[in-house]
Write a structure and sequence with these properties.
Layout: E1 3-7, H1 9-18, E2 23-29, H2 35-46, E3 52-54, H3 56-63, E4 71-76, H4 84-87, E5 96-101, H5 106-118, E6 123-127, H6 136-142, E7 151-154, H7 157-166, E8 170-174, E9 191-196, H8 204-208, E10 212-214, H9 227-242
Parallel strand pairs: 2-3, 5-6, 5-9, 6-7, 8-9, 8-10
Antiparallel strand pairs: 1-4, 2-4
Helix pairs in contact: 5-6, 5-9
Length: about 250
């Protein structure tokens, strides 16, 4: 099985809690002996994982410049990502989903995963092409949410939207020119919030496959919001209408 790199306290701790057996090696900065590092030592020891103390320069080289906080791990690459076909039968009246159309910044993807976790989303769905994957930078930005929220990569986002519609998922696209405010939507689940890349917005086919478009009201001088902020506002608006998730994740 392929290995992947986990960078920073949140990413390593989340994997330790979820799947400690998948950790192949944990490396820590040999100079750090602060409370946060000692707490990580205890957590690793309780699960039978022995970290290796190394020079900070070695961690820098492993991460290629990513800020690592003195903690890096190698872990099995297998993750919780389901296929769309596996996800659909699990959806219910309170399920909410997040679809990202062309988000290319790994920190934005990580922030979207964190938002999806907070809102109890069942999954985040992304296109395989013209979008960022789950890199070490994205996982670090997700602060552990990459371990709790399935990230589903699809070959054709338009076709995925069609499949969701066939499964009676109500699709709402974020669009600055829409007449209706996202906070005015009358929704019954399951439903999905579809967000495009910052500045570019939704692609034409994506927009056409949505059941409804909704805008986030902007009262200042900025024309748009960061994708993760737009994701948060839409998901929580949906959650307010659909009610809390029946269980924490999936939603």
């Amino acid at each position: 099985m392929q290995a992947k790199l986990l960078v920073g306290f949140h990413a390593v701790t989340a994997r330790l809690r979820a799947r400690p057996q998948s950790l192949r090696a944990v490396y820590i900065d040999q100079r750090r002996r602060d409370g946060r590092m000692l707490a990580l030592f205890d957590a690793l020891a309780s699960r039978g994982v022995r970290p290796m103390a190394v020079a900070a320069e070695r961690l820098d080289a492993m991460c290629g410049g990513t800020r690592h906080q003195g903690v890096v791990a190698q872990a099995d690459a297998g993750d919780r990502a389901l296929s769309l076909d596996e996800l659909l039968p699990e959806l219910h009246s309170r399920s909410v989903l997040l679809l990202l159309d062309g988000v290319e910044d790994p920190r934005n993807l990580g922030a979207c995963l964190r938002v999806a976790d907070g809102a109890g989303a069942a999954a985040v769905i992304v296109p395989r092409d013209r979008a960022v994957g789950l890199t070490a930078v994205a996982e670090k930005a997700a602060s552990g949410a990459a371990e709790t929220v399935p990230l589903i990569s699809v070959t054709n986002l338009a076709r995925a939207l069609e499949q969701l519609a066939e499964a009676q998922v109500w699709l709402v696209g974020a669009d600055a020119g829409a007449e209706q405010d996202v906070f005015e939507l009358d929704l019954r689940g399951p439903c999905a919030w579809v967000v495009g890349a910052e500045g570019r917005g939704l692609r034409r086919l994506t927009r056409e496959n949505c059941d409804q478009l909704a805008r986030i009201p902007m009262y200042g001088t900025c024309e748009s919001l960061n994708a993760s902020v737009a994701a948060a506002l839409g998901l929580y608006a949906m959650r307010r209408r659909c009610g809390p998730p029946l269980r924490s994740n999936p939603g």
